[in-house]
Amino acid sequence: HLKLIERLFQSFKNIFSLFLSCSLLLSYSYTFSLPSRSLSPLSPTIFLLSLSLQYSIPIVKYDRNGFKARPRQLILTQTAAYVVDDAKIKQRVLYTTLKGVSVSTLSDGIIIFHIPSEDDKQKGDLIMQCDHLFEALTKLSVVANKQSAINVVQGSVKFQMKAGKEGIVEFSSGQESMVYKDKNGHLMVVSTRTRAR
Fold first, then answer.
1. Could you tell me which CATH class the domain 38-191 is placed in?
2. Where are the domains of the chain?
3. Which of 88, 118, 159, 171 is least enclosed, having the fewest CB within 10 Å?
4. What is the pTM of this model?
5. Contacts 24+ apart (CB under 8 A), 81-87
6. Cα–Cα distances in Å, from 95 out to 24, 69, 99, 123, 143?
7. pLDDT tens for residues 169-191?
8. pLDDT in tens, 21-34
């Protein structure tokens, strides 16, 4: 009877392990919402990220120089935020190095991660836009314990580029929502309404 119980227990462990692996893979596919061309074998690094995943949301990342819009995924783990593109890590920001987070008083969805300029591994501050800003900020506050680092700005905010250069994001309201690079080199963010309080 003892050997039979041991065999049954071992079988149960094997079935549970298989179930857990399948659940993780399904969760990964759903959470990251990757296109069909990315459903190849998972990157080991991305798979490890999925194990410590706390939150994930689609974003638009704006390049620091030309402000070209690029679709990405923002992933929050227990220790860092990751910007991912097609299962490839484009940038990692450790919470311990995150100096601040800026958002505007408008409903533009812009969020800026301020990163130390002396960090040679970084390319400057991270400018992003997401549809569920309140949700993302709440998750970031809880996971990273950065409640006091969130700044709500009005009018404009400076951001750091590589090599010590600075840029400016200007916020305004208008009849049509848009994000574009102005002739003066600033990133112009126009929103149709003020964020509800």
1. mainly beta
2. 2-32, 38-191
3. 118
4. 0.74
5. 81/113, 81/140, 81/144, 82/49, 83/59, 83/126, 83/128, 84/32, 84/46, 84/49, 86/34, 86/35, 86/37, 86/38, 87/32, 87/34, 87/38, 87/42, 87/43, 87/46
6. 25, 24, 9, 16, 9
7. 999 999 999 999 999 999 999 99
8. 444 444 444 444 43
